Amino acid sequence: MSAEPIEVTGRTCVEFAALLRRRGLAIGPEQTTAFYAALHLLGQVGLRELYWAGRVVLANQREQYPVYTAAFAEFFGPPAEDDHGLPAPPRDRPLVAVDREAGAPGTPTARPGEPEEEADEARVVPSDVRLLKVKSFALMDADERRRAAALIRDLRPELPRRRGRRRRPAPSGPHLHVRGLLRASLRTDGEPMQLPRRRVPFRERPLTLVIDVSGSMGPYALALLRFGHAMLHTGHRVEVFTVGVHLTRITESLRRTSVDAALRRIGREVDDWDGGTLLGTAVRDLVDRFGGHSAVRGAVVVMCSDGLDRDDPETLGSAMRDLARRAHRVVWLNPLKGDPRYRPLQRGMAAALPHVDVFLAGHNLVSFEAMCTALTRRRVA
Amino acid sequence: MAHPFTSPAELRTRLGEVGYLADDALAMATHLALGLNRPLLLEGENGVGKTEIAKALAELLGRDLIRLQCYEGIDTSQALYDWHYGRQLLAVRGSEDARAADVFTRDYLLSRPLLEALEAGDRAVLLIDELDRADDEFEAFLLELLSDFAVTIPEVGRIVAPSPPLVVLTSNRTRDLHNALRRRCLYHWVSHPDAEREFEILRVRAPEVPEALARQVAGAVHRIRGLGLGNSPGVGESIDWAGALHMVGVATLSREIAAATLSALIKDVDDQQLVTEKIDLVVPSSS
Fold first, then answer.
1. Per the CB < 8 Å rule, is B73 touching A164?
2. Are residue A260 and residue A334 in the same domain, yes or no?
3. How confident is the model over B108-125, as a mean pLDDT?
4. How confident is the model at residue A80 (pLDDT cuts 50, 70, 90)?
5. Pick from A71, A99, A127: which residue ends a domain?
6. pLDDT number for residue B167
7. Which of B43, B45, B189, B197 to mutate to test the interface with A (most CBs of A within 10 A)?
8. What is the count of structural domains for chain A?
9. CA distance A91 to B193
10. Which segments constitute the AAA+ ATPase domain (chain B) (predicted)?
């Protein structure tokens, strides 16, 4: 028990909830009410009880704990540290990056959200298309990039499918739909005239894009982000991560309808854009945090990176091995491969390669089409 | 708000009496869940005792434990209710005027765990286990249940619990649960116990293991979790390991015997190799 009890009024609860909201936790009114009710239930509380009670009611994901703890300390003062102390913040960084306003310094090269890409509509004349398709993303000017974006949007590959579990009514199928049978037979004096069926439908595997955003990868990363956005908005199950110095999950930001608004937001959120690469560490982080998550387990994973890594190649090798064991298929796009003289000799790339199912260039639209074929194709061997 | 415990501390003590050692945060979470009639959502790694807390609460409160194990493809007819089609068909065909026969009444309804728990009200603890294994459509079925303790069956109407049951949901985080569900619940992340609490758990759950050995096991398991394995051992596994060590008849933990009995603790060959390599760190030479 902490020393002196604290007076907490309804107004305090509301103000604390408002502070948490400003820090990026989506707190509904019913949670604020529950917080107040909890304090009422507990009666006299010390700072530590207040901390635990608030955390149980207001922070509803582990990632929110550090944000909550910081806000609590700011609002109520630090909870007394006694024998048990407070839990150390979880080792992963908080996912909610907030209060980092638009004031972030703009960097050159193709950071998302530059004015060039506002027009969504681009008319594509077939004769140019062939030239555009073989041109590297890095060499395109603004106009070409816009037309390429329209082509990327129309790629629409089919993802591999797996058997679902839930039976659904269907025109034909191996199982009897008893509920429908009973309904239908009521109309005919309990005499079943037709036998409705059910079957197990197939479900699509999720697609996960892991995109390197370090220095030289900018234009390729943007093209792939556009691809991810298009896939997400045609109703596929897509997860998107960026890797640079660390791993950032950007799926939620990509959900915005406008691709440019989404890219602008990602540009603000991803703080290692154009930084260096700790690819091995970032992939290891992906496996550790999402290894059992549907974003990795049984998913089709597309990595896009030039394989230049400041980590020990052993780190990347073992992380890729674990990734390949969990994922359904791993596709690696390396824009350097677009040059016919390229050989995957950097040690990081060489360590990763044995664990990659399909190795492609991904530097222009033709190789994006090849990627789509690779996504659709059944697993070989 | 009638529940028999006046403070989280008391609840913690009483849980200890039925063999579950909770920490401050978990005691607070369960205390509030009982007092505010809110479902309690527990997330955490495998084997940290998420399911056990529901069992312990059921025992402590003297209520029935109703358990719904989730799996991919579970739907209303397995979780909530189903119609007794055979009886319905017979009733329709047996009656004079099939049109008049009303076969969509409570009499023809089969209760599945969720409906059963609703009708039992505060005589039940409902455990919805490993919710992340069910597909996301299934969460939508739960929303009405979790916020109002009621379900609506189209043909019958709304069935409301006479008094709210205690609901515990667990998730291993193999997929993200929807925020609509999270907001209806109290949330607690269950982490692995520290060495001291694990020692206490070993004393309670494996009383036959000598105290000195239990303390060494708790310390070693704590250090093993710090190695960054693919699958960290859970509490259940450390109890198994302590039991195994006791069975082979050792009084203190040595490196050789630890490496030899590792199969009771670590269930992955890569992890076993890693621990064997670093056995010097896990079992310090002083012991």
1. yes
2. yes
3. 92
4. low
5. A99
6. 95
7. B189
8. 3
9. 16
10. 36-205
Return the number of other C-beta atoms located less than 10 Å from residue B92's C-beta: 20
* CB-defined contacts A:B, below 8 A: 104
Minimal CA separation from A294 to chain B, in Å: 6
Q: Length of chain A, please?
A: 381
Shared-domain flag, residues A119 and A249: yes
Instruction: Kindly state whether residues A308 and A362 are assigned to the same domain.
Output: yes
In a domain? residue A134:
yes
Query: B209 to chain A, minimum CA–CA distance in Å?
Result: 26
Q: Which residues of A touch B184 (CB under 8 A)?
A: 30
For the stretch A262-314, pLDDT in tens is 888 888 888 777 777 888 888 988 988 887 788 888 889 999 988 888 888 88
Measure A287 CA to nearest chain B CA, in Å: 9
pLDDT tens-digit readout, B118-141: 999 889 999 999 998 888 778 888
CB A6 within 8 A of CB A47: yes
B6: Cβ contacts below 8 Å, ≥ 6 apart: none
| pLDDT tens digit sequence for A100-119 | 333 333 333 444 444 444 44
pLDDT at B99: 61
Do residues A128 and A272 both lie within one domain?
Answer: yes
Contacts of A299 in chain B (CB under 8 A): none
**Cβ–Cβ below 8 Å for A38 and B7:** no
Enumerate the residues of chain B whose CB falls inside 8 A of the CB of residue A63. Answer: none
Q: How far is B33 from chain A (nearest CA, A)?
A: 9
Residues 283-342 of A with CB under 8 A from B: 291-294, 297, 322
Does residue A250 share a domain with residue A153? Answer: yes
Q: Which residues contact A326 (CB under 8 A, 6 or more apart)?
A: A287, A291, A296, A297, A298
Q: Are A238 and A252 in contact (CB under 8 A)?
A: no
- What's the pTM? 0.71
